[in-house]
Amino acid sequence: GGVLLVAVLGAAWWWSYTARTAPAFSDAREAYENILSAQQSFDQFDLEQAMFSFHAAHERTGARAQGGRALAAYVHNAFAFLAQWGTSGVGADVLALEQEALGAAEKLAQGMEPLFQVSFSSLFHMKSGYAGAMAGELIGDALLGVREASAAFREVQEIITELKDEGALSEDARAQIAAFAPQFSLVSAHAEQLAAYLKLAVWALGVERPRKFLLVAQESAVARPTGGAIRSVGVITTQGGAITNIVFDDVYGVDGQLQANIVPPEPIQKIATAWALHDANWFLDFPLSAKKIAYFYQKSGGGEVDGVIALNEHAVKKILALTGPVAGDDGVPVNSESRRGLVRTDVLRALAEVLPTFSGDNVRALVQTIQESIREKDILVWLAERDHQDMIVQEGWSGGIISEPGADYLAVVSSDMSDDTAEVREDVWKETSIAANGDIVNTVAVQFIPQGNSADAGHERYVRIYVPAGSELLETSGFTAMTIAPQIDYVKERFVVDEDLVASERAARIDASGMRIFEESGKTVFGGWVTVGEKNATAIVRYRLPFSFTRDAAPAPMAFIFQKQPGVSAGIHFSLVVPEGMQATDADGNNLSAFSSEGTADIIIRATIK
Description:
The protein is an alpha+beta fold and 610 residues long. The chain has helices spanning 2-21, 26-43, 47-63, 69-74, 80-83, 92-111, 135-164, 171-204, 251-255, 286-302, 313-323, 345-354, 361-375, 386-395, 499-505, and strands at residues 211-219, 229-239, 242-250, 307-312, 326-327, 333-334, 379-383, 408-416, 424-434, 440-450, 459-468, 472-477, 509-510, 516-520, 523-532, 537-544, 558-562, 570-577, 584-585, 594-597, 603-609. The longest helix is centred in the N-terminal third of the chain and has 34 residues, at 171-204.
């Protein structure tokens, strides 16, 4: 018995000595570094590398519970005081914290395993069927594992907080915890975000009940607020964890079934007597336009939908670059170099048949293409379920109006009032002038540049310029005066008035220059007509902002927001004129007196003026 007691004491002493001399959290740091690498690979859809990194984390966390240290760990509580001997001791609580952190990492590594069984083909269960588990089922299993890991991460965070408040903790132990905490917090935050993604995927793939999403394909050569004129409508059905059906129809075929008479926006009355699905994307704020699209689809006999996805020709071109040519019903190949017909119903149907065959590098390239198209607003998403839509907004996928208190905002939105294609490039020039008394006056010039022979001598565009609410219009030039007379008596014909249009037009007024001024989506809007012919046309507005610049010893950065119109090629040129003796710089100290960008995405410039 004495010999056994000496052996146990000796083992505990040896373990405590090595624990004191070895760096604390060394195993945990390596495991968490592997997890961070795996999460980065997963974000890039490199599942092979992600699986390798998660496996390395699993090996690291599993090794901790094996070998000679297991005996010492077993008797650790009985001899915890040994671990705290010496001035550089780590402490029993710190070692226990590392064990908990490793356990949480192990749960995350195990929870992710079902995801590596997901193949691109498992997302589809249509005509040919799929023999393995559906993607949604595997994602649901991973969601349970990630949630369990997130709960473990929260418990570890509680321990970290308690230890930080513990007065008896040595300075060395505090330093070790402080060094590990940022890495731990990053992994924990990634796990929470991953759980939100997985929850959205389970919902969208119809694991709980069938889902139906509307896909509207827009022709960008006919400018409209959300990416172009709607040409085709697709219905994507999901059930049991996979896409079960995709069908496409011409938008006018859907409109032919419309059972409602709605008064259209006034500019549309120039070309149509009633509002319908093909003109439903009238608002720059995509969530609002998406609700109109869903409404008209429902009133055409299609029923309710769980979401609306809009994509334009630019997104289709990028996808065709990956798939290669596809043939429509006429047998003529359509590829990424084609200038017309990319959003025809038959072309989209052929494209939908090719995509499920993707695998390996093609899938990774497709995901990257979709991510790029979302970033450049060539793909927009709206979901009917509020919690999931909130996530879409947070991720910047919604195409909603950007709102930031105290920011100077600008969006230029063109709408072609005909079905004729007219490729026109826009260059937006904005000068912001801050007077000595703090008044801020903006001058915005929009130059319309026809491309090739695409525009005739009488092509007309309705242009809306969105600015901060309460801005005062001072001067305009380059706009064409036009009076729109309704083609029918809407009251007599008992047409229904749209509530959102009424809200924006209730306080609308026409100023002396003929500009229409109204409120929409929390912004003041200046609306007018521009005639684009064979030569360039330029429209100019000058207005005063509703707020002033205030001199401050420690000024906060002033934000200048440029929101891109989807589907429109537009260059952005910005100059900032500040009072004499002052200078505007960005966070790196660069002078911001002038700025230019191609405007492929939304732009936010933050200037410190002092």
